[in-house]
Every structure is written in C-alpha cells, then in structure tokens.
C-alpha cells in the first residue's frame, strides 16, 4: 500500500482527493493536512512526526506550494503537485533538487486526462498552423492567471514553432491587456474568471481560409482523480522528475 498524505485537504479539490485516496485499493490515507483545520495536521512537518508518508499530494495555494515542495524533497517525501502558480525557475530548481536527492517529484498543471489530450492535440495541430491563441476560463476563486494548463499548452506548442503571430500587424492596445498576455512563441493567452465555471480551455489555431478550435470543459472535479492516482502510482515506483501528465499517458 502507498501511504499518502493530502495537503490542502479542506479545499474543494483536496476533499475530492481525500475521497479518491481512501477508495483506491492501492493507497492508504495516512494524513490530512490543512492550515485552517482544527482536527487535522496543520503542516507537513507536523504530520511527518507522527506518520510514515510515501507520497504527499499538494492542492494548496500558489504562495505555499514551493515551500511545501522544498520541504518534501529535502525530507525524503515524494510529492505530486496539483497546485498551479510555480514559476519556471522554481520548477527548474525543484527538478534539480529532485534529481540531487533521488526523490520523485511529479508536477502536473492539469490531471484531467481529457485536458491532457487537448494539450497533446494542440501540439500536433501546431505543426500545421501559423497563428494560435489560447482562452482559459475558470471559477472566480482561482488566484493565479493564466492557468498552469494554458502555460503548459503554450510551452508544448512552442516546441513545434518559434512564433504563432505570423503576419500580425503592429498592434496598439487602447485598453491595457486587451490582447491578453504573450507567452511562449508569441502565443497570446486570455484569462476569464467567472462564477459558474470550473475549468475550460480553448486553443484557437488559424491559417489562411480556416480556423480550428480545440476545447475541453471540466464539469466535475472527479474527472481529475484518475490522473492524480496515476501520478501517485508513478511517483511511488520511480524517483524521477516529471512535468506534465502527458509524459506517462
């Protein structure tokens, strides 16, 4: 049995993860961790003093995830990270630390298998289109923008082409930010925050005479559980660093 702790256990995603770990025959929930809890552990350090933890799943907040990951990798706890908001340099530092300490670290901007397929399809399509933009739509309690999924999608597409703004004219924004943020290979990312959404993303690709849209919509957070458990099983068996669920699908 894989001994699993869940950090951010009281959050919307955290509650779903706790249930998934408890019902999976290959995992045992040994600790629920949440800074706001009265009847559970308040920190990873506190939980580790009492419990043996093989893998920690983190669904907390952007401001705490990096410190949480550092603690785990320096204390022989393998970690699966679902919290988005890590900077590129932080991801590189975690990769270096994971390899140095021979401790598995799995980071995924999105654990929905459908969303990961969307990202993979977008990378394939990127070979055949010269222009592309991304619109990501999330609930209005999501603190980071753009989403990790949008950033990872743009990164994957950039591996196929150096620019996706071919032929664009020189632009002037009469309202700052109207064209969204510019990411890898000049891909514009537009973030929408609105009650009613959970998570959706559109990748729009254009060429002369045609438009193609690849879209994924999340209707229920349970769709992430299959991918999370897949990542837990992988990291329990390996000491490697993985960025993106697409690497093990």
Attribute tags:
249 residues, Rossmann fold, Dihydrodipicolinate Reductase, domain 2, 2 domains, six-stranded parallel sheet, five-stranded mixed sheet, elongated
The CATH architecture of the largest domain is 3-Layer(aba) Sandwich
Please report which band the strand proportion falls in: under 5%, 5-15%, 15-25%, 25-35%, 35-45% or over 45%.
15-25%
User: Into which percent range does the helicity of residues fall?
Assistant: 25-40%
CATH level-1 class of the largest domain:
Alpha Beta
Give the overall form: elongated
Task: Report low-confidence residues grouped into runs of 5 or more.
Answer: none
What is the CATH superfamily label of the largest domain?
A: NAD(P)-binding Rossmann-like Domain
Supply the helix-strand structural class.
alpha/beta
- Secondary-structure element series: EHEHEHEHEHEHEEEEHE
Instruction: Work out the oligomeric state of the chains in this entry.
Output: single chain
**Count of DSSP strands:** 11
Mean pLDDT: 95
Question: How many H/I helical runs?
Answer: 7
Q: What can be said about the biggest beta sheet?
A: 6 strands, parallel
Round the Cα radius of gyration to an integer and report it: 19 Å
How many structural domains does the protein architecture include? 2
Strand arrangement across the biggest beta sheet: 2-1-3-4-5-11
**What is the CA-CA span between the terminal residues?**
22 Å
CATH topology of the largest domain: Rossmann fold
């Amino acid at each position: 049995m894989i001994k699993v702790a869940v950090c951010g256990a009281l959050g919307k995603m955290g509650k779903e993860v706790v249930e998934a770990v408890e019902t999976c025959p290959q995992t045992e929930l040994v600790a629920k961790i949440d800074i706001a809890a009265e009847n559970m552990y308040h920190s990873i350090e506190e939980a580790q003093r009492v419990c043996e933890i093989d893998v920690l799943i983190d669904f907390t907040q952007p401001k705490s995830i990096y410190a949480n990951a550092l603690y785990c990798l320096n204390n022989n706890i393998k970690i699966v990270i679902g919290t988005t908001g890590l900077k590129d340099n932080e991801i590189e530092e975690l990769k270096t630390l994971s390899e140095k300490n021979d401790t598995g670290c799995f980071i995924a901007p999105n654990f929905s298998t459908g969303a990961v397929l969307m990202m993979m399809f977008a990378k394939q399509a990127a070979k055949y289109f010269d222009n592309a933009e991304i619109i990501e739509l999330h609930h209005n309690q999501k603190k980071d923008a753009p989403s990790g999924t949008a950033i990872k999608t743009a990164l994957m597409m950039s591996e196929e082409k150096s620019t996706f703004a071919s032929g664009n004219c020189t632009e002037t924004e009469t309202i700052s930010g109207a064209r969204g943020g510019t990411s890898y290979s000049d891909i514009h990312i537009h973030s929408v925050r609105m009650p009613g959404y959970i998570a959706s993303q559109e990748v729009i690709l254009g060429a002369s005479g045609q438009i193609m849209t690849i879209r994924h919509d999340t209707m229920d957070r349970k769709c992430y559980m299959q991918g999370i458990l897949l990542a837990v099983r992988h990291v329990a068996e390996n000491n490697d660093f993985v960025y993106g669920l697409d690497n093990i699908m």
